[in-house]
Specification:
Elements: E1 2-3, E2 8-11, E3 15-16, E4 23-32, E5 38-46, E6 54-61, E7 66-72, E8 76-79, E9 84-93, E10 99-102, E11 106-113, E12 117-122, E13 125-127, E14 133-140, E15 147-152, E16 155-161, E17 163-168, E18 172-177, E19 185-192, E20 198-208, E21 214-221, E22 224-228, H1 230-235, E23 240-241, E24 244-256, E25 259-275, E26 279-297, E27 302-321, E28 324-347, E29 350-363, E30 366-380
Parallel strand pairs: 13-20
Antiparallel strand pairs: 1-20, 2-11, 3-4, 4-5, 5-8, 6-7, 6-9, 9-10, 9-11, 12-14, 14-18, 15-16, 15-19, 17-18, 19-20, 21-24, 21-30, 22-23, 22-30, 24-25, 25-26, 26-27, 27-28, 28-29, 29-30
């Protein structure tokens, strides 16, 4: 971390034109006295004129109180002023030593420049795939109008300026950086207050092409369509069972240009009612599976992929006869499943998924197969 030490006074920039050309305020310097107290020097300079022998400079406070009245042969005046509003006027003297022209009064303000202090940078990593690259700088004396820039470790002479989007007093700045100018690598952050003091945070920010891992949570509606098995098809009058819901936790931990690979935990709950003339049956089934997943981004808004895996299905069948409740049958069965999906991202972190999964349960004495069309809403974090 490097910075210019201690607060200093900065003279704001003013430019006026006249017979002596541009007058400039804004240069300053400082040095510490033997007792450690900083001594501030502000500079007023203007263009020299060969027809001017000397310059008379009058300096007053904004209220009109005299501060300085001096004659100079060189077009430069060094001052030691405290914070406040001031005005100055220059009178030009010709080669005969006579006053030739009086320039109008010009005002300027001396500000107290503060040393920015940074206690936190969040996030510490940016991913170019996010497009909107915003970073929050937290600390003290982060003034409105500060400039924030990045320098890459292997290109220290090139500076990338950020745009301040939010300013929370002097305690935090929210800065957005142009994605098109950034490349993966480590960057130092430089914050410069309007007064000129600055602070550098070496390699405080890492830029990646994309996040190394994506995690997502989704949930939604997943009706059950029974495809085959004589017992299931005879026990229920239909093959479509709408009372079903699914929740998924997905993690993509291998991300390559040809697609993302990961794993997924799927939890599905299903209720089915049916039976025969002799008895009715109410079944509840819970399926828990772990599946491998693959996703390929088709565009910033769309992605497609597939999943395959298996797990365990917990089933409970409650029979009711004409003369009362009958026995309940519970079982735990292995199953396999596979499916395809399409995702739409209306926003960067929010997606809607449509999918179709095929499931095959291995039950004692028979097997059951079904399709599950799903409509889910999820978020990436």
């Amino acid at each position: 971390m490097a910075s210019r030490a201690r607060p200093v006074i900065l003279l704001l920039l003013w430019c006026v034109t006249g017979a002596v050309g541009a007058q400039q305020m804004g240069e300053y310097s400082f040095e510490n006295a033997p007792d450690g107290t900083p001594t501030f020097t502000q500079v007023l300079r203007w263009s020299a004129d060969p027809n001017v022998r000397s310059y008379e400079v009058a300096l007053e406070t904004a209220a009109g109180e005299p501060v300085l009245d001096t004659r100079l042969e060189e077009p430069i005046l060094r001052l030691h002023l405290g914070p406040g509003a001031y005005r100055f006027r220059i009178v030009l003297y010709n080669l005969l030593g006579k006053p030739e022209m009086e320039l109008p009064w010009r005002t300027f303000t001396v500000l107290m420049a503060k040393q920015p202090q940074v206690t936190g940078v969040s996030p510490k990593e940016l991913n170019l795939e996010d497009v909107n690259l915003k970073v929050t700088m937290s600390g003290h004396d982060l003034e409105r109008g500060a400039k924030v820039s990045l320098t890459k470790a292997d290109q220290p002479t090139e500076s990338i300026a950020g745009t301040i989007r939010e300013c929370n007093g002097t305690s935090s700045l929210r800065v957005e950086f142009p994605a098109w100018r950034l490349a993966p690598g480590r960057y130092s952050v430089v914050i410069t207050n309007p007064g000129g003091l600055w602070i550098e945070l070496p390699e405080a920010l890492v830029v990646r092409y994309q996040a190394p891992t994506d995690m997502a949570v989704s949930a939604g509606y997943s009706p059950w369509v029974s495809l085959y098995d004589a017992w299931y098809l005879q026990a229920w009058p239909g093959t479509f069972f709408p009372l079903s819901a699914t929740a998924r936790f997905s993690s993509y931990f291998i991300k390559r240009p040809f697609g993302y690979f990961g794993a997924e935990l799927d939890l599905t709950g299903l209720m089915m009612r049916g039976g025969t003339d002799a008895a009715s049956v109410t079944s509840t089934i819970g399926l828990a599976s772990v599946r491998a997943i693959y996703k390929y981004p088709l565009s910033p808004q769309f992605a497609a992929g597939g999943r395959i895996g298996g797990g365990i299905a917990l089933s409970n069948h409650q029979f009711t006869y004409q003369n009362g409740a009958g026995p309940a049958i519970s079982s735990a069965n292995l199953f396999v499943s596979t499916g395809l999906f399409l995702q739409y991202y209306p926003m960067k972190k929010l997606f809607v998924e449509t999918s179709v999964d095929w499931t095959h349960q291995f039950m004692q004495g028979f097997s059951e197969g079904s399709l599950m069309p799903c409509l889910l809403v999820g978020t990436v974090f």
